[in-house]
Amino acid sequence: TGAMTMTDFYELADTTREGLIYPARSMKVDLEKAPQLPLTNYMMESPVLDADPCIGCSKCVDNCPTNCIVMDLGPQNKKMKSGKVRNVENPYFDYTICIGCSTCVKVCPADCLHMEPISNSSSSGLSEEGASNEA
C-alpha cells in the first residue's frame, strides 16, 4: 500500500488509514436473521421495604444510581421514636429500572430495607400484583 508506520525503523503497513474506515451500511445487521435471545433480568435480588421502621429520610432516593426510587405517601400520623407524630413518605421502587446494587439498603439509617431473591416466575422483578410498585 505504500503507507509508512513509525517504529524504531520505517516499515510498510499492511493497510492504510482509509482502509480501516467502514461505511455504516456494511455494518448493518438484519434483525430478521439475527438469533432471537429471550429477554432476561440478570438481577438476582431486589430491595424490599419494611414500612414500620421507615422514617422517610429519602437517603435511598438520594443515593440510588438509577433513580428507580420515588418517595410516596406512607403512614399518616406515625409516632416516631422521638415521640413526635408526623406524616411519613415511604420509598417505592420501579423494578424495571432497578439494577439490584443494594445501595439503598446500605445507606438506610433505619434498616427498613433488605434484599430478597427474585422468584423465577417473575423475570421483570415485579411482584405478583404487577405494577403496584410495592415490594
UniProtKB/TrEMBL annotation:
Pfam families: Fer4_7 (PF12838). Residues 45-74, 89-118 form the 4Fe-4S ferredoxin-type domain. InterPro entries: 4Fe4S_Fe-S-bd, 4Fe4S_Fe_S_CS. The keyword Metal-binding applies. Keywords: 4Fe-4S, Iron, Iron-sulfur, Metal-binding, Repeat. The keyword Cell division does not apply. Transmembrane segments: none annotated. GO terms for molecular function: 4 iron, 4 sulfur cluster binding; metal ion binding. PANTHER family: PYRUVATE SYNTHASE SUBUNIT PORD (PTHR43724:SF1). This is 4Fe-4S ferredoxin-type domain-containing protein. It comes from marine metagenome.
